[in-house]
Amino acid sequence: MPHKFLKHWSCGIAHLLSLEPGRARLRGLSQWLRQVCPVDHFVLFVYEGNHRPLALFDTFPADTRHIYVEDYQAGPYLLDPFYLACTRNQPAGLWRLRQLAPDHFYLGEYYLTYYQQTGQTEEIAFFVDLDCGAKAVLSLMRSVSSPAYSRDEMQILECARPVVEQVVREAWQLRRAERPRPAQDLDYSVHEAFARFGAGVLTAREQEIVRLLLRGHSSASIAEQLAISPGTVKIHRKNLYARLGIGSQSELLGLFIRELTLPERAADLRATG
């Protein structure tokens, strides 16, 4: 690391830690990390039990924030590889989205719908362990016009990890002190909607396959996950499409999103079975 860069880097840390903890310091963190490499947008989510993801900070403009924050919080986060990695207790560290995503994630409707709408294609994230089993994920996003993060950039960002973890933990502790989330306010409804999607219309096996399809798994990956043949997966897939009255994966995602946003869809769907 060149001497001039190291001096600039350390001065940036000193300035960052002089800011007030919380949003001011998180914004300062984003500016400091941009000294290392270009980043188009940042977003910091906290995943805690069955609460919906809590957005502590983001840099999205108003015209796209609803896609990446508000729409995401409504239920599609259940299909996000970063969220799913948190449920598997992914170790703290810096991770590329492609390291954690299923094999067909970049061909799936979730990616095509929620990522390409905003032009973001490259994403890495710091995973930070919080107290009480919660996890924070600070995502660094690049647009389609930007190259993938290089090995050198990843190595320098890895050196920034202790500072990132301190700033994120301080922001989380401050948020909990100001507005604690009561235990009885756990949001099980979204998880239940995902688990019961297609109930009364699909078989239990077909429901398993639907959940994996929505999360970006190919027929081969589903076959491996469920210990069945790819041909059997294709038959199940054809049957479940027919039972749901759809003809594509995009329609499957649309049906799932409508059921999340309109709870009465579950009753309507069962009535058509």
UniProtKB/TrEMBL annotation:
<dbReference type="InterPro" id="IPR036388">
    <property type="entry name" value="WH-like_DNA-bd_sf"/>
</dbReference>
<protein>
    <submittedName>
        <fullName>Helix-turn-helix transcriptional regulator</fullName>
    </submittedName>
</protein>
<dbReference type="Pfam" id="PF00196">
    <property type="entry name" value="GerE"/>
</dbReference>
<keyword id="KW-0238">DNA-binding</keyword>
<keyword id="KW-0804">Transcription</keyword>
<feature type="domain" description="HTH luxR-type">
    <location>
        <begin position="195"/>
        <end position="260"/>
    </location>
</feature>
<keyword id="KW-0805">Transcription regulation</keyword>
<dbReference type="GO" id="GO:0006355">
    <property type="term" value="P:regulation of DNA-templated transcription"/>
</dbReference>
<dbReference type="InterPro" id="IPR016032">
    <property type="entry name" value="Sig_transdc_resp-reg_C-effctor"/>
</dbReference>
<dbReference type="InterPro" id="IPR000792">
    <property type="entry name" value="Tscrpt_reg_LuxR_C"/>
</dbReference>
<dbReference type="GO" id="GO:0003677">
    <property type="term" value="F:DNA binding"/>
</dbReference>
